[in-house]
Specification:
The protein is built from 15 helices and three strands. It has 408 residues and is mainly alpha-helical. Strands 1-2-3 form a three-stranded antiparallel β-sheet, covered by helices on one side. A hairpin with a 4-residue loop joins strand 2 and strand 3.
Length: 408
């Protein structure tokens, strides 16, 4: 009797699940579930879960660093706040992934215009943190326009480049290049050289995917190299960071390259397998342990194997997207999805390169793992757009009249 009751309860539960998420369900949620790339969704949820564990590991060190005589932060202060941001961000991701392509494009273009205007106001109304004006204060928190601009800018650029299919004579390289230069100039005023590099790199990759001629790409690469050299001589922020990385001065170890030195000491402090959760010691000397240098904290407490596993998750996301796009026929969806995947990969690669000492410090978060409200919500919106542009109806190209041929 008990077995029968359990079996009936199990069937009832399965029935409810099949009713809600079965292929016959024509509700928006049911259609979304079968059209979405569930592998990508699983991978991003894995990153978010890893991020919560990493922030929990880094939170005590950051709480000690940012406590003072007037206030003492609880050890898990940043962890609980990160849970709040994740709770807010996931609905944004799901809602964005449900948008039709046309609606997503229009919202992105309008958002790009608003956020560029916001960047223009930062020198006047922006909150200054560590010598940079990148945030707009909202009372209880801060809003970083550049984080939200990245995915919307990519979608807008993808739409402009996709117009080439309708009119090959349009000067799209010049138009999108001018837009990228405008954004880059506004970012360097903050200053934020790292984000400028991301915008420029993603734009060039999208040009390659759009089929821009090799000569034009070569000229752009040369111009980018010349731009870096020019920035070194005329842009103080870039010069200081490049000098500290390439020509470290032993007398200035505690100022110019203290962060990178501590990041290297932290990430190698746990060896292959790590010291174990909560066992890290070097992390207490590391600035921004919960944000820019959280990858180093993962290395100390969970080992270099965990760092390698995180890198493989990012690689899996990028590869999955490009494999998914192999048969994409819509130029806009192809460019938008590939650009969003490249942006995620480049940002992760830069952060990991900084943490391992391969690149100079750039103040860039590790996607979905570093602590931060603006970063988490903006990344969730960007990934929601990526999921929207990679949605596929499995029955769209099937003919209801196709008949299997019998073997003769």
């Amino acid at each position: 009797m008990t077995d029968m009751l359990r079996e009936n309860a199990s069937r009832g539960f399965r029935g409810r699940v099949e009713e809600r998420l079965g292929r016959g369900n024509r509700t928006p949620l049911g259609l979304w579930f079968w059209e979405i790339d569930r592998v990508l969704l699983l991978l991003v949820f894995l990153l978010i879960a890893i991020g919560l564990v990493a922030v929990a590991a880094a939170s005590p060190a950051s709480a000690v660093r940012y406590s003072d005589a007037e206030k003492t932060l609880p050890a898990m202060y940043y962890f609980w706040r990160q849970i709040m941001w994740v709770t807010v961000s996931i609905p944004f991701m799901i809602a964005t992934s449900m948008l039709p392509t046309t609606a997503a494009r229009r919202i992105a273009m309008a958002g790009t215009l608003v956020l560029i205007l916001s960047l223009m106001t930062l020198p006047f109304i922006g909150a200054e943190v560590n010598g940079a004006r990148r945030w707009i204060g909202l009372g209880f928190t801060q809003f970083q326009p550049s984080e939200f601009l990245k995915p919307l800018f990519i979608v807008t650029t993808a739409w402009l480049l996709s117009l080439r299919a309708k009119d090959p004579e349009l000067p799209l390289v010049i138009i999108t290049g001018g837009l990228t230069a405008l954004v880059g100039g506004l970012l360097m005023l903050q200053p934020d050289f790292g984000q400028t590099v991301v915008f420029g790199a993603v734009w060039m990759v999208m040009l390659m995917i759009a089929g821009t001629s090799p000569k034009a790409i070569g000229a752009l690469i040369g111009s980018a190299a010349a731009g870096v050299v020019t920035a070194y001589f005329f842009y103080g922020t870039a010069r200081v960071r490049i000098d500290a990385f390439l020509f470290p001065d032993p007398d200035k170890a505690m100022t110019d390259h203290y962060q990178t030195d501590m990041a290297h000491a932290t990430i190698t402090g746990g060896g292959i397998t790590g010291t174990g959760p909560g066992g890290g010691i070097v992390k207490f000397k590391l600035p921004e342990a919960h944000t820019d240098y959280i990858f180093s904290v993962v290395g100390e407490e969970f080992g270099l194997m965990a760092c390698a596993a995180i890198a493989l998750v990012y690689l899996a996301i990028v590869v999955r997207v490009f494999v998914k796009l192999l048969d994409e026929e819509d130029a806009f969806r192809l460019l938008a999805a590939s650009g969003l995947a490249v942006q995620l990969g480049i940002q992760a690669m830069i952060n990991m390169a900084v943490n391992t000492g391969i690149a100079p410090s750039k103040g860039m978060t590790l996607p979905f793992i570093s602590y931060g409200g603006s970063s988490m919500i903006a990344l969730s919106i960007g990934f929601g757009l990526l999921l929207a542009f990679t949605r596929r109806n499995p029955y769209l190209k099937r003919s209801p009249y196709s008949v299997a041929r019998s073997k003769q």
